[in-house]
Predict the structure.
Amino acid sequence: MFDWENLRHFLAVGRAGTLSGAARSLRVDHATVSRRLAALEDELKVALVERLPRACRLTPAGIQVFEQAKAMEAAAFAVERHTRASQAPLSGKVTLSAPPVLVTHFLATRLADFQTAYPGIQLSITAEARQVSLTRREADVALRLVRPKESSNVIRRIGRMPFALYASRRYSALSEPSRWTFIAYDEQFADMPQQQWLLNIAGQRPVSCELSDISSHLIAARAGAGVAGLPCFLGDTDKQLVRVDDQGAPFARDIWLVTHRDLRRSETVRAVMDYLSEAFRSDTAFGEAG
């Protein structure tokens, strides 16, 4: 019988297309993935992957094993979810994936309150810009800024996150919109809605710097590096910033709460989801959930 861990590493290689990509997804080093892959090929007595200079390509046998392995993985996760859903109520660990800005500036400030309300639940929060797979149990619950499309998930819209333009009160061009420069995202986030909104407002005016996350935009704006498009719950409460108006179109991101349908009856998961729903609904900065 082959080692399941070896098969799990092979699945990661098949999904990522490279050993380094698989290593990042599994949070291990490149050598571990290579060793696990070689061990699986030795166990099965067949070549599964063709190692190319910059990629890994599945062999015909590898494609067949990959499809079968995905089905095995799905079945294993289904068993785990069903077991999790039948656990004793209000006791255990719940993993939550959420956008970094919400983790750092909203959720982290409410952990003490959550612990008081649910002392038996250990909430494990990961700040991730990517959309994790709930089917593969990468998280029990997720907050997303894009409406989830997976048919296996249960979703709920719990609020809206409005954006506006902000600059330091000491920004040298504060009273001269024609001289504004803008703080934007780098090119990997070119398709992000708030990036497109900001660049549309900027028009022909220059981008002074590019940063990859909202927390960095906040700090750069405080330092007077330019005008930033920030969530209003951040900008409006920062005494070093002032909201500026450039007659741009209003912009907001919906906030979606999602879990796998197999976990919707888990008392611990429901407790976390209900707490999050109420936290956003009771904060006027996030508007009406609808």
About this structure: The two ends are 52 Å apart (CA to CA). The chain is about 40% helix and 25% strand.
